[in-house]
Predict the 3D structure of the following.
Amino acid sequence: MPLIRLICMCLLPSLLIACAADPFARPKTPVPTPAALVDASEPDPISDMAWRYGEARWARDQLGDPIIHASLGQAPYTIEFFGCDQGRDCKDLRFVAHANLGEQISKQKLVWQVSDWNRERRFGKAVMTEDGGLCLEMNVTLQGGVTRQNLDMTFDWWRVALSEFHTFASEI
């Protein structure tokens, strides 16, 4: 019996610590990006891929993080970099485009139409802006790196979503 007590006394603190730890905590050390993959740590590979689809140039935003101003045909959009450390080593991207609505539409009707549009689409999320316009967003993580083919497919998904979004906005 004393052996069981000793084991319990030694294991109980470890069990309490293990149970108290956040089960949703992220591991402390990130997995490095292999050399052959693309991540968001530098804007050049992302900007180069954007050029395959239309004009693109990168700059720095007010925080010093990279931002790419691009267009697909006559549709301008931006690619914002997130999770940056002083303007470098960014983790994620957000593709963003805006559409102005030609006519005034009731806010409730617009909410229903945007909700329907979002439910029917896999990529890109339409949201109403504070000024009554529409915005299309698509968030992408590049943590750990992706192949150039995967990044190309991400841009192609954005191309399709942006085309459908502009059609949607023009029909409201």
Remarks:
- The two ends are 77 Å apart (CA to CA).
